[in-house]
Specification:
disordered C terminus
Length: 133
């Protein structure tokens, strides 16, 4: 089965609240994660909430990385969606985990836009993994 896109849903647990509370640092981490995955950053938008929390999006030519961080819980939710087969997603995920100082990462992958000879016909869950870092 081939897919037009790959969607990785990540839950980072036990992260550094200090890292997750720094909006500019989060922007830099997400941008560098994209670069390490050999993606091409074309835009960014990050917003810091009061009293705490950050949401942001790094747009890549391959699609996007988004993050929603709850520093008070040491938790970050990341979506990494990309097209093509040349993206090195594991390098980006390992980098984010290291920079967030994550204790555990839960990972789920979806193939988006399954294609056969007749055209596009759906999305399929590829894998669901829980692994400790």
């Amino acid at each position: 089965m081939e897919y037009l896109g790959h969607h990785i849903v990540l839950d980072f647990h036990g992260c550094s609240p200090t890292v997750l509370a720094d909006c500019e640092l989060m922007r830099k981490i997400m941008s560098e994660a994209a670069v390490r995955a050999e993606c091409h950053v074309v835009g960014e938008f990050y917003h810091e909430f009061e009293p705490h929390g950050i949401s942001g999006c790094t747009i890549i030519s391959e699609s996007h990385l988004t993050i929603h961080a709850w520093p008070e819980h040491g938790y970050a939710a990341v979506d990494f969606f990309y097209c093509g087969n040349s993206v090195l997603a594991d390098l980006a995920i390992d980098y984010m985990s290291e920079m967030f100082q994550s204790g555990r990462v839960d990972r789920h992958e979806l193939g988006r836009g399954a294609v056969d000879k007749s055209g596009v016909f759906g999305s399929v869950l590829i894998a669901g993994d829980d692994f400790d870092k």
